[in-house]
Every structure is written in structure tokens, then in C-alpha cells.
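Worked example

This section walks through a single chain of length 350. The input is the sequence exactly as stored; nothing has been trimmed or padded.
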Amino acid sequence: MASVGAVVLAIVALAILPGPAGSTAVPRCTGEEVGDSTNLLAISRLQGSSAGNQSVAKGSSALAWVGYGTRDPNLAWVSWIHSFGATVSAQMRLPRVGYTSSGTHFAKGFTSNDKAVMNEQGMKEDCDNINLNKKLRANFRPDVFGSGMKAFFYKCEQVGDRNKYWFTITSASESNMRKLCNPNSVYPIVYDAQHSTYWQDLPFACDHAPYGNLNADYFIGVLVNQMQLVPSICGAEGTHFAKFYTSDGAVDKKGMEEDCDNINLNKKLIVHFRPHVFGWGMKVFYHTCDKVGDSNKYSFTVVSVNRRSFLRFCSPYSAYPRVHDKQHSTHRQDLQFKCFHYENWRCMVF
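Given that input, the structure is written out below as C-alpha cells.
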């Protein structure tokens, strides 16, 4: 039986190849058909191979998303998982050949460089942000590692006078990854303007020596698990606008700026996007944000297991109730979501 890593690399490789001549087109969400030019039908080549029914034991931290015993002739859900991960990879500029490790580490936050007074508020805000939105850093601690250290923080807990973080980090530099995983490494204090906090990073406790991997498959596998991505039926990319208001109805420029700056600094990964509107399972990745007049303009990638909710999400006629954003103490009004590149995403019709 092929190894899990081999299956993953086969999927990634096949997903970027042109479709075989004569492949059958598959349905879009609109009910129209997509031709071979989408490049997604090449995944059907896996039909009948060991990849088609490769199963992975529950609890595998990186690659448990492969398989589930599916025999779908088009393996459409592989397209969704690959496309979502490929978008993250492109936005993060993940190395094609790299070294990756996961683990935990502690950090303390202070109000000043002399570390005399703990900044409990800044520590709480950083922890809450990670637990709510996760955190992707395309250039982690350049003062220590130089450029190109890619970090994914997906969980945080306050433990006594420090925060405990769960991470997966990858780099094209094996020496930098070994430095990261060295329990004797020392980190200079660094200022975090977002939370007005001076951070003292403690050593990173890696669960294992850095793995060599292609196309950041291990890094993306961890992200897929943390996002609870399952066989999805619909997905798209697009843009949308949102406005922000104070409790008395005035434009909230501070809330707008904080949300935009947070996305441009840390990206944003939402496991259940607006569940009061769409129910559970609408996964959204916000890539970038621009301030346009009195609104923020966002670029996003979305996937969903619910076709009806997905079509509502992409409908130009949908309206959304104003919602209170506790993180930025503002009231958010989402406008319509403009979905495009449908031809690059497939929907299975129930």
C-alpha cells in the first residue's frame, strides 16, 4: 500500500496537470458544465488506484484528511481541499521544498522593554485573536531567522503569567528550523504594535525534528485538520465589502482599521463563518483587506458542505443582519459577497 505522504504528493501533482482527453465534464453550482480547461479533472486519474480508498487512522495530526474510503469517480472533494490549501500556500508563499515541525511554546507580554510590568490585556488579546481567527505569519521573527519563516498558530491558552501557543512552522532553511527547535535558543524581546505589547518568546518545544517535505504538504495538512475541512461540495474565491458602525450608528473608523490591519498582518481563518446565517461548516479564508472610502474590501476563499448555503453566500441578492464584533468593539455590516472563478471549482449536486 502506498504511504500517506506518497498519496498526498500524488494528489498535489495530479491536481495541476491538464485533464485527460475525453474526460466527462462535472457540474458547477450554477448547473452548467465545466470543460477540461479547469485542470481539475486530472484527479479522476486516481480512480481505481490505492489513493482512491486510502484510509488514515483518526488522530493523525497532519494528513488525516486523505481518503475516508471514497470511491467517487471524480474525487471532487480532493479538488476542494487542494484548492483551499493551494490558496493558503500561494498567499503565504510557502516553499516548494522545506522543513516543517509542530509543537508548543510559551511567551510573556510586558508593557515596556524593561519587562517590569506584565501586559495582561495584550496577552489576552493575542490569545483571543488566535483562538478566534488563527494566525498565519508569512515572515515570522525576521529579526532572528531572516526572511522566509512561515508560521501557523492555531491555539492559545493563558497559563499563569504566560501564553501557551500551538504551532506549525516551515522554512526552506533546515538550519533555521533546527535553531527554532533548539531548547537552548534565546530570543530578544520584540515589540508588537497590534497589541501594544513587548513579547519575550521562550524556547519552542518541537514535537519532532523538522521533516523535509515537498509543496508544504505537512504544513497544509495541519491547517486542513485545524479548519475541520471535510469532503466539500462547493467553493469559490471572491471579494466583498463591509461597513463598521459605533453603537450610536456613526461610522467606526477605528474598528474598520483594526479588522483590516489584523487580516493583512495575520490573515484570517474562520471555521464556522456566520453560523446564525449559514449554519455550521462554512469555511472562509480572508487573504487581504483594503480600506475603500467608508468600507473595507476583502479578498476571500470559501468552501462549504452545504450547497444551498453556498449559493446563498454567493447570491447578489442576499442581505445580512448587522452583527456585533466583540474583538474590535464594533458593529459590522456585511454587504453582498461577489464570487468568481466558478469554473475553477466544482459542486456535486444532490
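What to look for: The first strand starts at residue 26 and ends at 27.
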